[in-house]
Write a structure and sequence with these properties.
Helix 8 packs antiparallel against helix 9, helix 12 packs across helix 13 and helix 17 runs parallel beside helix 22. The chain folds into four domains: 245 residues, Topoisomerase I, Chain A, domain 3 (Alpha-Beta Complex); 162 residues, DNA Topoisomerase I, domain 2 (Beta Complex); 80 residues, Arc Repressor Mutant, subunit A (Orthogonal Bundle); 138 residues, no CATH class. The chain has 25 helices and 16 strands. The N terminus is likely disordered. By secondary structure, the protein is an alpha+beta fold. The strands form five sheets. Strands 1-11-10-12-13 form a five-stranded mixed beta sheet, with no helix packed on it. The structure holds a DNA duplex. Its EC number is 5.6.2.1. One of its GO terms (cellular component) is chromosome. It catalyses: ATP-independent breakage of single-stranded DNA, followed by passage and rejoining.
Length: 795
DNA sequence: ACCTTGACTTAGCATGGTGTCG
DNA sequence: CGACACCATGCTAAGTCAAGGT
């Protein structure tokens, strides 16, 4: 069978017009032959033999090189025993030793060779925090622009804010800074006890503050899904009891189900109500106070320039809200003490004072990293950092680097696709799996998919897909259904390249594989990325996401109407954005009020169309001769029949009744406060009566609508009004479409992380759309480096 | 050669301020 | 002018990936 290119296309790429599988033809040997190979493998090899050789045809020359380390079969029991991956036979199918390229690749490692191996502890004065130094000499910048008054103590030079780092060539992997000054981190306030008891089996238990604090954490979560999640409850309760044991001589807490947090909850509700009820001034002062405290942490001085710090606040204690089915969800995240915090700062800078009575855990001077402070969190033992803000030069530089890397894929993507398309038929199983995975990553923007542990939520990416996550349907349909990052469901049915389909079928059928087995049992993210490095320096799996997102976006923007209104252009922009979001599977929960909002828009729309219809009818009546001059007046509106109008008018009555009643209550409330006589009930009754009358007249068809123009309006005036209404209708319709298409899709993630901002900026210039319409202040700050591109810039 | 750790990007959700609309 | 939707922003969890450690 000759595979036709078009057949191999997946819908998206077809729609987008960049064509990958033109490359399919490069494999000219008949598909059938290739197709048979895997089958032959399956039928020819005895199970016993396959155990070790399952990854390749045993009698091909290539296969002799393939020496799986461990029993590949044993490695298969995937999820049940995550550690089993250790046994994954790594067939180092050395198809082609690619030595030369490697040297380029290595470049990245250079700085680290420079890094002296983590100096443990320098001899430091006993009572002082350990100070670790690791200063890497700054490589001379291309433009020795270090205007940075390297020693500036107060870093108050605001004028440096417009330092344009993107105009100079920065070294990718040199030191990250030369001088660094900052004021450390801000700790959350101490717990303030409220003394409200927890009710346990009906008994009020007043707890010592540390115990009360934990109980209060749970009270705060009441009303959310967490509160009814059994794992969350149990994890919380275990830690709660532990704390209780530490702080109470005896306590009655035996089972979660006997705990009643409602009293504490009411207290919390009261507090937040109080906060809400504060006057503007009070809020204002409070805000000012807060800012005063935060001010010193907000900025640091990096190479003499003032830069914004991101998350200078130490994370407060709380119950861990793991996403999805996280085994540790609900566990107590403990308060972080200064003694656990490491401060990273310039060697000559003043070390910030730790909170009174405390010391820093450690102070380092490591200029190979960008963080200002770090600590270890107790839930997953992971490391938390204080970094600079997104708009800082350090972040900007790496952002630019990221997009430039993705951009360099543009020129070599054809070759890479050709290569992996060819490898889809490789005789070496590991290569075939790698090529197949790469195809999925490239076409469907899947994540790499690292292995995960038992103590994490069961989510997967490409390399960690299990057989249960895909279903095949002849001739070349694949159904994906799995939980990805953040336990977001990835569900998609799509056509794939025929060879990919065959490969998937083969991988799934592999020796006695079951649903819970790894689909790509010969593949790891590490091996995949290592391979990618040989194709292009710096290439990793995630680059494909960036590349495809930006590329698709640029393609789709070509649908912008040249002569359209701004709203139409923005719609085109948002649609392109949405295509990317869909590609990357960026979801959000449908807003609770969505249905409401939608029907309100529909009502609004109908109202305006109805008004227009009234005017049209009126015109036709008073000036029938206009028919000829203005045929548009004749155009009948669809969906505005007598029945619909009646429904609409009646619903308006309903709404009006509500409105009037509410307003009445509100007015009286005010009068009451002002100690003035309240309005009599009759006022409301009169209004309601008017509405009742209207309703009746609508029902019996005697209702006479008011025209939305003055009685004596000229025809021209009326035509003008009609035109205005038409515009309004169009704009509402545009809004409506946009809204509906957006309800479950998060556009921001791709905008912030995946789409090269230069595409958007060039688009704004080309179509004369103000940048504020698409980038909010945060985004504009984050992407200052991209502002200079002209309207013709392309990704 | 593996596993772990460290550093950094990517992710959705909660929330609180703000703009808009009647 | 208040209610309400909306949006920006903060927050921190959850990924990626390569160096380091064993």
């Amino acid at each position: 069978m000759s595979s036709s290119d078009s057949e191999d296309q997946i819908p998206l790429s077809a729609r987008l017009g960049y064509n990958q599988v033109a490359t399919t033809r490069s494999v000219s040997s008949s598909d059938d032959d290739e197709d048979n190979v895997p089958l032959a493998m399956r039928t020819k090899i005895s199970p016993a033999k396959r155990k070790n050789e399952s990854d390749s045809e045993s009698d091909t020359p290539l296969s002799s090189k393939v020496k799986p380390k461990a029993n590949g079969n044993a490695a298969k029991k995937q999820k049940p025993q995550p550690k089993a991956k250790a046994a994954n036979g790594k067939s180092k199918a050395s198809a082609k030793p690619r030595v030369p390229k490697d040297s380029t690749v290595k470049v990245k490692k250079e700085p680290n060779t420079k890094k002296e191996p983590k100096v443990k502890k320098e001899p430091t004065p006993k009572s002082e925090p350990t100070v670790v130094k690791k200063i890497v000499d700054r490589k001379p910048l291309i433009k020795a622009e270090s205007t940075a008054s390297a020693g500036s103590q107060n870093g108050s030079e605001g004028s440096d804010d417009d330092y344009k780092w993107w105009l100079e060539q920065k070294d990718d992997d040199g030191p990250k800074w030369t001088t660094l000054e900052h004021n450390g981190v801000l700790f959350p306030p101490d717990y303030v006890p409220h003394g409200i008891p927890l009710v346990y089996k009906g008994a009020e238990i007043t707890m010592p503050p540390p115990v009360e604090e934990v109980a209060t954490f749970f009270a705060a979560v009441l009303g959310t899904d967490h509160a009814v999640n059994k794992v969350f409850q149990q994890n919380f309760f275990n830690d709660f009891v532990e704390i209780a044991e530490q702080h109470m001589d005896k306590h009655p807490f035996k089972e979660f189900k006997h705990c009643d947090f409602s009293r504490i909850r009411s207290h919390l509700d009261e507090q937040s109500a109080k906060r809400k009820a504060m006057t503007k001034e009070e809020k204002e002062t409070q805000k000012k106070e807060r800012q005063e405290i935060e001010e010193k942490y907000m900025y640091c001085t990096l190479d003499g320039r003032r830069e914004k710090v991101g998350n200078f606040r130490i994370e407060p204690p709380s119950l861990f809200r793991g996403r999805g089915a996280h085994p540790k969800t609900g566990k107590l995240k403990r308060r972080v003490m200064p003694e656990q915090v490491t401060i990273n700062i310039g060697p000559d800078a003043k070390i910030p004072d730790p909170p009174p009575g405390h010391r820093w855990g450690k102070v380092t001077h490591d200029n190979t990293v960008t963080w200002l402070a770090t600590w270890k969190e107790n839930i997953n033992n992971s490391i938390k950092y204080v970094f600079l803000a997104a708009g800082s030069s350090l972040k900007g530089q790496s952002d630019l680097r990221k997009f430039e890397k993705a951009r360099s894929l543009v020129t070599c993507i054809d070759g890479i696709r050709k290569q992996y398309t060819k490898d889809l038929k490789s005789k070496v199983m590991a290569e075939r799996q790698r090529a197949t995975a790469l195809y999925l990553i490239d076409r469907f923007a899947l994540r790499a998919g690292n292995e995960k542990g038992d103590d994490e939520a069961d989510t997967v990416g490409c390399c960690s897909l299990r057989c249960e996550h895909i279903k095949l349907e002849s001739p070349n349909i694949v159904h994906f259904d799995f939980l990805g990052k953040d336990s977001i469901r990835y569900q998609r049915t799509t056509e794939v390249d025929k060879q990919v389909w065959k490969n998937l079928r083969m991988f799934m059928r592999g020796l006695a594989k079951s649903d819970s087995d790894m689909l790509f049992d010969r593949l790891t993210t590490a091996s995949l990325n290592k391979h990618l490095q040989t194709l292009m320096p710096g290439l990793t799996a995630k680059v494909f996401r960036t590349f495809n997102a930006s590329f698709v976006f640029q393609q789709q923007l070509q649908n912008t109407p040249k002569g359209g209104t701004e709203a139409e252009k923005l719609l085109a922009y948002n649609r392109a954005n949405r295509d990317v979001a869909v590609l990357c599977n960026h979801q959000r929960s449908v807003p609770k009020s969505f249905q409401n909002q939608m029907s309100r828009i529909e009502d609004k729309l109908f109202g305006v169309r109805y008004q227009r219809k009234l005017l049209k009818d009126y015109l036709l009546e008073v000036a029938p001769d206009l028919k000829k001059k203005h045929p548009e007046v004749l155009v009948k509106d669809i969906g505005i029949g007598a029945k619909e109008i009646k429904e609409y008018l009646l619903s308006v009555c309903e709404l009006d009744r509500e409105k009037v009643t509410k307003k009445f209550a509100r007015d009286n409330e005010k009068l009451k406060e002002a100690k003035e006589p309240e309005l009599p009930q009759s006022t409301l009754d009169e209004q309601l009566k008017a509405i009742d009358d209207r309703e009746k007249s609508i029902k019996d068809g005697t209702y006479e609508p008011e025209l939305p123009v003055a009685k004596n309006a000229t025809t021209d005036k009326i035509l003008e009004k009609i035109e205005k209404l038409t515009q309004r209708i169009n704009s509402i319709e545009v809004d409506k479409i946009d809204k509906d298409e957006n309800k479950a899709t998060a556009l921001s993630t791709s905008k912030v992380n995946y789409i090269d901002p230069r595409i958007s900026i060039a688009w704004c210039k080309k179509y004369n759309v103000p940048l504020e319409k698409i980038f909010n202040k945060t985004l504009r700050e984050k992407f200052t480096w991209a502002m200079g591109v002209d309207s013709e810039w392309t990704f």
